[in-house]
Amino acid sequence: MRTLIRAAVGVLVLAAGVVAPAAFGGSAAQAAPLPCNYVTNIQGLEIPILYPSFQPHSCEIVRGQRDTSSDWHYRPVSVLQNALVVCYNKQIAVDGDFGPRTEQALREVQAISGTAADGRYGPNTKRAIRHHQEGGERCYKLVGI
Questions:
Q1: 75 and 110: one domain?
Q2: Cα-to-chain-centroid distance, residue 9
Q3: Are residues 23 and 56 in the same domain?
Q4: What's the pLDDT at 135?
Q5: Longest CA–CA separation in the chain, Å
Q6: DSSP secondary structure letter of residue 58
Q7: Chain segment 91-104, per-residue pLDDT in tens
């Protein structure tokens, strides 16, 4: 009986070690980042984030993601596309659809910005590229995030 109880406790401890980190903000190797779903103003810049979240900058935007709202605050793909057009003069549509042209434009910008050119907008890319100033014509990098 003790052996059975020890085995059951061992399985529970092992399961908690595998499931808990992913459920409670574990590493990217354990759980895929969630998609950015909101746009906020940080340092005067339009920045895609994950909302609501205790880690709003841990999200990503990837090929196949589409904006589903007409409200600008819920259009992170369009905000990224707008930054690529305004800040880097990329010739892509700002249509809210992260397709192959957006992915290629992002790869090119990542390459010149000194981050991995993987075509995924995540925390490293967020820090590396310039973002469009809300209501303005200028582009800046985020500072201290």
A1: yes
A2: 37
A3: no
A4: 84
A5: 72
A6: G
A7: 999 999 999 999 99
Please state, in angstroms and rounded to a whole number, the distance separating the CA atoms of residues 61 and 116: 15
Buried b (16+ CB within 10 A) or exposed e, 72-105: eeebbbbbbbbbbbbbbebebebebbbbebbbeb
Element (H, E) at 14: helix 2-23
- pLDDT value of position 55: 84
Specify whether 81 is located in the same domain as 27: no
Note the pLDDT tens digit of each residue in 55-113: 888 999 999 999 999 998 999 999 999 999 999 999 999 999 999 999 999 999 999 99
Give the residue from 111, 49, 97, 75 showing the smallest Cα distance to 119. 111
Same domain (yes/no): 56, 88: yes
- Domain around 23: 1-31
